[in-house]
Amino acid sequence: MRFIRWSAAFASLALVGCFAFKPVEVRITPTAYQVGEVKSSLATPAVDEVVRIKPSKVLIVLCKGTHPMRVIQFEQELSARHHVELSLILVDKGCPAA
């Protein structure tokens, strides 16, 4: 019986852990950076918001028409202030028309 209680407790903690480490999404478009409600034409406010949240993972959602230097700017500012695992995906949905 004790084994079942410990197993249930461990499973509960594992499920909580899976949801607790959801990556922070940063959307980078040709004209703006957005993290949650923070939207700016400069990378610094977006980086400030990510650093405030202190995630272990960041998902960069990149519109296909975005200049690579915008991504590099964000990555450099973020890596100078907070070490975090980065992932990147390219999207069309929700991006401004080119």
**What's the assembly state of these chains?**
single chain
The biggest sheet, with number of strands, parallel, antiparallel or mixed sense and barrel status, is:
5 strands, mixed
Number of strands: 5
User: What is the count of DSSP helices, taking H or I runs of 4+ residues?
Assistant: 3
Strand order of the largest sheet: 3-2-1-4-5
Name the poorly predicted regions: none
% residues in beta strands: 25-35%
Q: Given the helix and strand composition, which structural class is it?
A: alpha/beta
Shape annotation: globular
- Report helical residue fraction: 40-55%
> How many angstroms separate the termini?
62 Å
Q: Kindly report the average pLDDT value.
A: 84
What's the helix-strand series? HEEEHEHE
What key attributes describe this structure?
five-stranded mixed beta sheet; about 45% helix; alpha/beta; about 100 residues
Description:
By secondary structure, the chain is of the alpha/beta class. It has three helices and five strands, in the order αβββαβαβ. The chain has helices spanning 2-20, 43-53, 68-81; strands at 24-28, 33-35, 38-40, 57-63, 85-91. Strands 3-2-1-4-5 form a five-stranded mixed sheet, covered by helices on one side. Strand 2 (33-35) and strand 3 form a beta hairpin. Helix 2 (43-53) packs across helix 3 (68-81). The radius of gyration is 17 Å and the shape is globular. It starts with a helix and ends in a 7-residue tail after the last strand. The model has no long low-confidence stretch (mean pLDDT 84).
